[in-house]
Amino acid sequence: MTQAITPIRVLVAEDQTLMRQGLRTILELEDGFTVVGEAADGQEACERALALRPDIVLMDVQMPRTNGVAATARIVAQLPATRVIILTTFDYDEYVFDGIKAGARGYLLKDTPADELLAAIRKVHAGESIIQPSVATRLIAEFTRRNAPAAPEYEALSEREVDVLRLLADGLSNREIAARLVLAEGTVKNHVSTILDKLHAANRTQAARVAREQGLI
C-alpha cells in the first residue's frame, strides 16, 4: 500500500487580490500542495503564520501596514521551521537584500512560470535556497557594497596647509616650500607634520597620493 505524501502547506501573503487568488489556484491545481491561508498585508501575514504554522510563506515585498521584509523577519524569528519565499515585480529593488538578510530562503519574480514556482517551493521546503539567476549577480554586488570598509574620514586642512600640501606634492623640500611661501623652515616642518597626521599618511609621498585621490589639490 502506497503511503500518502503529506502536502506542502502554503500561506500566500499578497496585497493584490487577483495575484493572491492566482497563486492559490496554481497551488491547488497541483498535487502535493495545500493553501492553508491568505494574507493581504504584512501584519496579517504574521498573525496567520503564527496561527496556521505553514511550511512555506509566499511573501510579497511591498504590502500595507507591515512590509514583507519586516514580516519575514518576525515569522522566521518566531517560526524557525517555516520558510519564506519573497515575491516581487522587480528583478531587484531596495527590499530584496534586506529580505534575504531577514531570513527569506528564496527570491522569485512574480512573472515566474507556474512550473518554476512549484519547483522552487519544493526545493525550499526540502531545505535549499532559491535565488533567480537574473538577480543573483545584483544581490552579490549589493552585499559587497554594504560590507565594503568605510572610506577613512580626513580632518579638514587649513588654507595654509593646503598651500604647503600642493608644493609638497610637487616634490619640494621643506626649505624650498619655506622660501616659496615666505615662511620659517620650522613652521613648514610643523605644517607637514600636521598634514601627515590629518591625512593618516606615513610619509610625504603617501600624503600627496591621498590628497590627489580626495581632490584636495
UniProtKB/TrEMBL annotation:
SUPFAM superfamilies, alphabetized: C-terminal effector domain of the bipartite response regulators, CheY-like
Coiled coil: none
Sequence positions bearing 4-aspartylphosphate: 60
GO MF annotations, alphabetized: DNA binding
Response regulatory domain ranges (all copies): 9-125
UniProt keywords, alphabetically: DNA-binding, Phosphoprotein, Transcription, Transcription regulation
Gene3D superfamilies: 3.40.50.2300
Domain HTH luxR-type: 150-215
Signal peptide: none
Record CDD domains: LuxR_C_like (cd06170), REC_NarL-like (cd17535)
The keyword DNA-binding is assigned to this record: yes
UniProt-listed GO biological process terms: phosphorelay signal transduction system; regulation of DNA-templated transcription
Name under which the protein is recorded: LuxR family transcriptional regulator
Annotated organism of origin: Kouleothrix aurantiaca
